[in-house]
Specification:
heterodimer, A: about 110 residues, mainly beta, 6-stranded mixed β-sheet, 5-stranded antiparallel β-sheet, B: about 120 residues, 7-stranded mixed β-sheet, 4-stranded antiparallel β-sheet, 11 strands, about 50% strand, globular
Chain lengths: ~110, ~120
């Protein structure tokens, strides 16, 4: 069956460290993978998009990797800050037969402590 | 803040009733998608409209219906509400027929509680 797995347990890290979040998927072949940030009671906010033929994408303190062989994306936040505390969602897109929609994982909650 | 606005922000309805949720897309955007997000879950795709035509639908029953207007704003209608319909309903707007390969701008959501 099709699955998108993100760590269900919260990730707690110290300020200044690098946070690494994982998105694994099975029985999907996405053409794109997107990462969003969601704060409590708010809508998701777009962070990065990476294409299947791209290995890595960076934006300021953010880095995303996409390994279509391992069926995995890693999302890194370097020099993390308490303001980075939020839930991070990965979304698969451009699925064969999947149309134009985004298919989201359940998200990982990140807590950055002082 | 995105330019996507949803109304109302909170709503309480009784089982069996009908509800209409509204979404104003960001200026210049002609695509709107609707998602349902239960507590602790990721958003689930309901359907998408592009230039007033439905161009994708998720695994939701027909009592979930929608509409997109000439100004590209949109409505989500849910009939015969069930307790499990309690969730955060999100709309997302973008430019172009697909939200796969472009940034989607989400509204703040409507929190629907069915009692």
């Amino acid at each position: 069956s099709q699955k998108i797995e993100q760590n269900s347990e919260a990730l707690n890290i110290q300020e200044g460290k690098t946070a690494t979040l994982t998105c694994n998927y099975t029985n999907y072949s996405p053409a794109y993978l997107q990462w969003y940030r969601q704060d409590p009671g708010r809508g998701p906010v777009f962070l990065l998009l990476i294409r299947e033929n791209e290995k890595e994408k960076r934006k300021e303190r953010l880095k995303v990797t996409f390994d279509t062989t391992l069926k995995q994306s890693l999302f890194h936040i370097t020099a993390s800050q308490p303001a980075d505390s939020a839930t991070y969602l990965c979304a698969l897109a451009g699925l064969t037969g999947g149309g134009n929609k985004l298919t989201f994982g359940t998200g990982t909650q990140l807590k950055v402590e002082l | 803040e995105t330019g996507v606005t949803q109304s109302p922000t909170h709503l309480i309805k009784t089982r069996g009733q009908q509800v209409t949720l509204r979404c104003s897309s960001q200026s210049g955007h002609n695509t709107v998608s609707w998602y349902q997000q239960a507590l602790g879950q990721g958003p689930q795709f309901i359907f998408q409209y592009y230039r007033e035509e439905e161009n994708g639908r998720g695994n939701f029953p027909p009592r979930f219906s929608g509409l997109q207007f000439p100004n590209y704003s949109s409505e989500l209608n849910v009939n015969a509400l069930e307790l499990d319909d309690s969730a955060l309903y999100l709309c997302a707007s973008s430019s172009g027929p697909s939200q796969s390969n472009t940034e989607a701008f989400f509204g703040q959501g409507t929190r629907l509680t069915v009692v």
